Amino acid sequence: MSQPLDGIRVIEIASFVAAPACGALLADLGAEVIKVEVPWGEIYRHSRPSFAGYESDFPAAPHFHMDNRGKQSLALDLALPQAVDALSKVIAGADVVLTNMLPGRQEKYGFDPETLLAKHPNLVIARISGFGPDGPEANAPAFDYSAYWARTGLMDQLHEPDAPPAFQRPGMGDHSASLSLTVGILAALRTRDQGGKGQVIDVSLQHIGFYITSNDATMALVTGESPPRHDRRAARNPLWNHYRCGDDRWLFLVMIESDRYWKTFTDAIGEFDLAKDERYTDGFSRYENARDLIAHLDAVFETKSRDEWTQILNAHRLIWAPVLEVAEAVADPQAEAFGSFPTVEHPEFGDFKTIAPPLRMSGTPLTGTSLAPALGADTAAILSDADVDDETIALIVASAE
Fold it and tell me: Containing H/E element for 321?
């Protein structure tokens, strides 16, 4: 079966998460993706679970394999002028160059948009960086922790008023950014194939943070104020709040339209008098008396385990969720039913589950189970296909050993 991006060649000059995750999505869609990697392998490739505090002895980096599935590996040390020249020849046969190299490094190697588009006017150049290609921090190094999380207000916003700033989990901003970069590449390819030229796609981790938090950021733009932090003890809507159960597990009520659910909710938890209490007759009165109501609900939810509350709340079709640990969440039968966790059959590491691509297509299977390449496995073949001479290929391969 043909795939949407059959015949498209992508050269990925990138490391870590955001750009490689985009490359994996393009490979899922059928593109030929050549990953350019340092000969010793990027840190992400070597980040086994045990290095991050897990007790597992799994011998590979499962997140690297997810973000690099379906690619070829070209190991190059760009400190060698011959490697730079060889990569230029590989790029000459490409449709897309995907990179997280900062502008200064792009210019150093002659891979900046001006140079590349002068040689290859139909090329699509997709770049991702912390802060974008313009402004005083265009060449500032960044991770999503800094540009997406701390610099956009997310880190400050996602904690209780008396708690320290919240710590981001790995790859949150990166994977969000990868989706935007993928959309831009697909749009640019369509424009080019309709008679246009190549163009440059830029995604900034900082801007993605503002886009993800646009409900808050747009408010701040027009008011000049930061939104009040959530305080669960005095939530503006007590039915949009989290509560501790009797077994010390948490649940999260998400009844944003509180008036619609108030009577059903009080019936479900057996607190019939609450529905008649004048302090709680509508959303505004519940907000005015939130501390008292939340204290009362705290006591109610502590009377039963979370499993018991699950049966009760689900029986009344209320909107809520258990607050799951990650190991619990990835065992969720609903996620299994969607196909979230396919199995990779790896000849070296054995079978292991991974995360499927972030969408399904009825006419195009997107399994997410293609293998990530062994380091440098395709170097000689790729360079030979690009008409790099045998002597240079031998030098580059030897430098990677």
Answer: strand 320-322
CA-nearest of 400, 397, 342 to 371 is 342
Q: Same domain for 175 and 276?
A: no
Look at residue 354 and tell me if it is in a domain: yes
DSSP letter string, 84-125:
HHHHHHHHTT-SEEEE---HHHHHHHT-SHHHHHHH-TT-EE
pLDDT digit string (tens) for 309-341? 999 999 999 999 999 999 999 999 999 999 999
pTM of the complete model beyond 0.90: yes
Per-residue pLDDT of 83-133, as tens digits, reads: 999 999 999 999 999 999 999 999 999 999 999 999 999 999 999 999 999
DSSP conformational letter for 145 = I
Residue 240 belongs to a domain with what CATH number? 3.30.1540.10
Domain that holds residue 123: 9-212+333-399
CA distances (Å), 332 to each of 80, 325, 329, in order? 49, 11, 5
Which residues make beta-bridge pairs with 202? 127
What does the alpha-carbon distance between residue 376 and residue 312 come to, in Å, rounded to a whole number? Answer: 55
Considering the domain architecture, whether residues 205 and 342 belong to the same structural domain is answered as yes
Taking the C-alpha atoms of residue 21 and residue 392, their distance in angstroms, rounded to an integer, is: 30
Closest CA to 22 of 153, 139, 131, 125: 125
Q: Is residue 42 part of a domain?
A: yes
Question: 5 forms bridges with which residues in the sheet?
Answer: none
Please identify, among 323, 358, 377, the residue that sits at the C-terminal boundary of a domain. 323
Indicate if 160 and 203 belong to the same structural domain. Answer: yes
Q: Please, which residues bridge with residue 352 across strands?
A: 344
- Type of residue found at 223: T
Kindly indicate the confidence band of residue 52, based on its pLDDT and cuts at 50, 70 and 90: very high
- At residue 64's C-alpha, the angle toward residues 342 and 51, to 5°, is 110
Both 349 and 308 in one domain: the answer is no
